[in-house]
Amino acid sequence: MTRMQKERRRNRRSGIRIPVNLSYADATIETSTLNMSACGLRLKRPGRLYIPPGETIDVSFKGTDQPPLAAQITHLGKSHIGLQFDGKRFSGDELRALYDLAPAWQRFMVGSKRRLWRDSRRFAVLAANTLLRSLILKLVNPDFVFAVYGNRRDTDTYWSPKMAKHMPANLILGFIRNQNARGLLVASQTPEQELQANSDKVRTYISQLQLDFPQAKRFALVGRLPTFAKKAGIEIADPLVEGSLGTRYMIRDIAQQMKARAEYSEESSIVVLGGAGRIGNAVCEDLTGLYETVVAFDPRYEKDEEVRTEQGAVLRTSNVARLHDRKLYIGLMSQGDLVLDLFQHMPAGAMIADDTHPCISLHAREKLLEKGITVEKVVLSHSDFVMFPRMPSWNRRDIPGCLVEALVLLRRPDLEGGEFLSFCSQAKEMGFAGRLIKPLAE
């Protein structure tokens, strides 16, 4: 399966098959679903039916009061048709109502497959961190470790409380390769909320990481983990990597791409949500070379203050009125869903480039979309990068900015603590490029 095919599958699918009618060119065609998601359908292709990709048809669900939905043909295979709804997205309740139209045996089979997939993933995590852990460490011999954490929902995806008792505190969850460098994705069993509240648990996590993986030359700390570490009195120095240079490189690249889009080419300002944070201040200054005004929005600012830089101006503020006429946003908040406190003050047509962890959730994105605000996820990519299995809400070839810094420093240790533009030059030379992608629906 090609990468493009993988990236089309951004929405969680039901696997339910129910009858539908298609209306096209004054004809009504009966068929059935092969799969459904919030944004589209995969249908059984009737006989020799041919509808060119790009054409719009109407879809009706039998046995419902749902009015016909306009949908665009996105793919035409030998036995199936791919559709994407035109301006429509099913809510969770609407999907459940359609799901209930299927026979009980079919719902049972779909539920069984999902449970089997969940249990298989959990078993793989258990095996990798008990019976196979020593073998994995010997075979991979990691050059670097990507240290992550999750919320309760993330952790429940990979292990149960009963399993946790039989596994080490720091769990191997994935393999990472970039060119000749090999590494491991490692997660703490301690969820984000506890790491934030308890510095002792942070110190235990970081120290145990280095004991568990003594051969690793770099430890990339995800998201807010560097902030938690500093709060716990841990110095972020070799071999620990806080990731700010990689994140700044990524956001600078993305901010250029946002301005290059036709609908935003006239925008002279950009808002950094979370602009007073550890990375936010540096990002704001970086972006003054691209925009006349950078608005550093953060509730920690008690009054408006304009700071002049060599290239432009940064407006530090917590005043939501400053958002009313701004259409471009970089999300750097401590949690993506904090945007729900602000989106009513943003104009329709606004766009948020999301670099939060945890990222803006599907529920929040649906709320934003109702107001005409789109969200795209910020990632870095490299043609030779692979993460398997992927992190939740990420494609396996997309790289968090904090990890890129570790990969660059593996190649060029002399750049640690050096000039930002020198780091950017090396990252670009190594082939890392920023991308805006549609978030996965999970």
From TrEMBL:
<feature type="domain" description="PilZ">
    <location>
        <begin position="7"/>
        <end position="87"/>
    </location>
</feature>
<dbReference type="InterPro" id="IPR036291">
    <property type="entry name" value="NAD(P)-bd_dom_sf"/>
</dbReference>
<protein>
    <recommendedName>
        <fullName>PilZ domain-containing protein</fullName>
    </recommendedName>
</protein>
<dbReference type="Pfam" id="PF07238">
    <property type="entry name" value="PilZ"/>
</dbReference>
<dbReference type="InterPro" id="IPR009875">
    <property type="entry name" value="PilZ_domain"/>
</dbReference>
<dbReference type="GO" id="GO:0035438">
    <property type="term" value="F:cyclic-di-GMP binding"/>
</dbReference>
